[in-house]
């Protein structure tokens, strides 16, 4: 399974937990510059994934009709 499919299976909570781990790693002075850059890139990808998921949820919430039923967009 590639990284993209693995990301798509994550819940937002799991993604936020991974972002928290990434922040902790970056705050740790033991990483080399190259390792820091790689970890930073992973964090940016996760952040974009989270933003996309949140946008999707917001769009679905806006699509609720007066009966509380969700109409797909």
Structure description:
This protein has helices spanning 3-8, 12-27, 33-62. The protein has 73 residues and is mainly α. It has a domain at 30-60. The radius of gyration is 16 Å and the shape is rod-shaped.
Summarize the model shown.
The chain has helices at residues 3-8, 12-27, 33-62. It has 73 residues and is mainly α. Helix 2 runs antiparallel to helix 3.
In total, how many beta strands?
A: 0
Distance between the termini: 29 Å
Q: What is the gyration radius calculated from CA atoms?
A: 16 Å
Helix content: over 70%
Order of helices and strands: HHH
Percentage of residues in strands: under 5%
Q: What is the typical, i.e. mean, pLDDT?
A: 83
Structural class: mainly alpha
> Which blocks of ≥5 consecutive residues have pLDDT under 50?
none
Descriptive tags:
single chain; 73 residues; mainly alpha; rod-shaped
Write the layout of secondary structure elements.
Blueprint: H1 3-8, H2 12-27, H3 33-62
């Amino acid at each position: 399974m590639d990284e993209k499919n693995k990301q798509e299976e994550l819940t937002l909570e799991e993604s936020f937990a991974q972002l928290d781990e990434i922040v902790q790693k970056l705050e740790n002075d033991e990483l080399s510059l190259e390792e820091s850059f790689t970890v930073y890139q992973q964090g940016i990808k996760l952040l974009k994934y989270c933003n996309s998921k949140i946008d999707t949820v917001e769009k679905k919430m806006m699509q609720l009709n007066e009966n509380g039923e969700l109409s797909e967009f």
